[in-house]
Amino acid sequence: MFEDETSVAWRAMPRHAPVVGADGAEIGTAETLLADDDEDIFHGIVLKRKPGGEKVEIPARRITRITTRRVVTDLGPSDAQALPAYKEK
Questions:
Q1: Per-residue pLDDT tens for 74-83?
Q2: Which domains, and CATH codes, for the chain?
Q3: Which of 27, 31, 37, 82 is the most buried (most CB within 10 A)?
Q4: How buried is residue 34: exposed, middle or buried, by Cβ count under 10 Å (0-12/13-18/19+)?
């Protein structure tokens, strides 16, 4: 899926990139990275859901690819609905 797009490292994730589920359907936009820059550890992203705008967390293990245009996940529709709410720290 999206083979014509260039993969990038997590640090280069485009701001407000569309986030897609396993079926390629857009589930929201990437709001921010969840990471420890000092330790170079990627924990996941904050997703702003479509529709509604609720912010939820997607753990790094559910993200299969980041490209110059979007974030690809392995989430099915029910998985996307079950994501935990994002709690700012």
A1: 999 889 889 9
A2: 10-74 (2.30.30.240)
A3: 27
A4: middle
Look over the chain and give the mean of its residue pLDDT values, rounded to a whole number: 92
pTM of the model: 0.91
Give all strands of the β-sheet with 18-20 in edge-to-edge order.
Answer: 55-59, 41-49, 26-36, 18-20, 71-73, 63-66
Helix, strand, coil share of the chain (percent; to 5): 10, 45, 45
Residue that is written with structure tokens 């990437």 in the block = 30
